[in-house]
């Protein structure tokens, strides 16, 4: 085990090794992805809670408000396309979207 993973510390009796598996630094990946997105002209709006998504087939309208309890006012913006990465919450919006 130590030959495969020299940074292991402690006493071990045995372990599994799966050749096809790997570990990445998710913080480095997501920070790098955000930097690349902004470098290419994107704007990231942190701390926003999407309240409503509507599509007419040509454009997508998002209504969002700040995620803090004290944020009450919502803003609405229209886009030609959006990428939704809301994990399991995406099921909430599937019915009123035209998905390409
Ligand atoms: C306990 C556990 C351990 C795991 N371990 C591993 C592992 O070791 N390796 C691995 O590869 N995978 C692991 N996974 C799986 C991995 O975490 C998921 O596959 C991955 O996070 C999915 O990414 P995602 O971006 O699709 O969704 P998520 O990470 O779920 O991101 C969705 C985001 O959308 C946001 N969101 C939802 N609704 C709204 C809304 N209305 N407005 C604004 N934002 C919203 C959420 O707050 C969230 O930040 C693990 C999962 C769990 C639960």
Offer a quick outline of the entry.
It is built from 1 helix and 3 strands. Helices cover 14% and strands 21% of the residues.
Detailed description of the structure:
Strand 1 and strand 2 (about 60-65) form a beta hairpin. The chain starts with about 25 loop residues before the first helix and ends in a 21-residue tail after the last strand. The chain has one helix and three strands. The protein has a domain at about 45-100. The protein has a three-stranded antiparallel sheet with strand order 1-2-3, with no helix packed on it. It is α+β, with helices and mostly antiparallel strands. The chain has one helix at about 25-40, and strands at about 50-55, 60-65, 75-80.
Instruction: Tell me which ligands are bound.
Output: flavin-adenine dinucleotide
Summed up, the helix count is 1
> What spatial order of strands do you see in the largest sheet?
1-2-3
Q: Kindly provide the radius of gyration, computed on alpha-carbon positions and rounded to a whole number of angstroms.
A: 21 Å
Strand content: 15-25%
Q: Helical residue percent?
A: 10-25%
Indicate the mean pLDDT. 89
Count all strands and give the number.
3
What is the terminal separation in angstroms? 47 Å
Listing every helix as H and every strand as E from the N terminus to the C terminus, the arrangement reads: HEEE
Shape: elongated
Structural class: alpha+beta
User: Which regions contain 5 or more consecutive residues with pLDDT less than 50?
Assistant: none
Largest sheet, in brief, is: 3 strands, antiparallel
């Amino acid at each position: 085990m130590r030959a495969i993973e020299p940074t292991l510390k402690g006493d071990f009796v045995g372990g599994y090794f799966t050749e096809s598996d790997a570990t990445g630094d998710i913080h480095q990946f997501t920070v790098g992805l955000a930097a690349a997105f902004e470098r290419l002209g994107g704007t990231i709006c942190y701390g926003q809670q999407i309240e409503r998504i509507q599509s007419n087939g040509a454009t997508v309208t998002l209504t969002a408000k700040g995620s803090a309890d004290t944020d009450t006012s919502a803003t609405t913006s229209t886009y030609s396309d959006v990428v939704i990465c809301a994990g399991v919450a995406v099921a909430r919006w599937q019915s009123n979207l035209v998905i390409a």
